[in-house]
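FAQ: What does the model actually see?

It sees only this:
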Amino acid sequence: MHLFYTPEIKKNFYLLNEYESKHCNKVLRLKINDIIYLTDGKGNLYKSKIIENELKKCQVEIIKTFKNYNKRPYYIHIAIAPTKNIDRFEWFLEKATEIGIDEITPIICEHSERKTIKTERMEKIIQSAMKQSLKAYLPKINNITEYKNIFTLPDKYKYIAHCNSNSLIHLKKVYQKKNNALILIGPEGDFSDREVQLALKNDFQEVSLSKNRLRTETAGIVSCQIINLLND
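And it is asked to produce this:
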């Protein structure tokens, strides 16, 4: 199954852009009448047939549409401090998309060592991971924001994972199946005590993700996996 991201698709015939056309022709070596799949990243999956396949011009005809393809009854939003080594944060984005995540908000905390990211590059990484994992929903990545701004979000089930205490309840014991979840993950130096207290005042629940101390990007992946496994 070959999946292509086509966010602007509207009609029954679609012309792939030059890059995707070359990928079809040169890399995948697909031919006329071969089947490929398209997605708009909004849950629609389109089974399509190649009807024209030139080097820079691959046109397809949609023959079947699957709406809400593999839609999940819950929503995972992780607000996470980007790591100093940007490669680790990019790894988190890739793997979280493959596992299943809906929204990511990079946050700037008191102990943050990275306060800027290239959102456009992050979006491309997420798009690639979505196609690779054959998903029809593209996770949303927000612009990087100050930690305090996360508390304006209306999410009901909210958690903050940190290492400032040894007596925290594990996320798997407090999360309830099919509920949306917003999870805060701090930077390499963890959240400050002040940041934890601010979260508690805004109805977040403190949780643990492991008996071990996890790297920021690992904590993001683990929290994402926990929610998905509990809903499996």
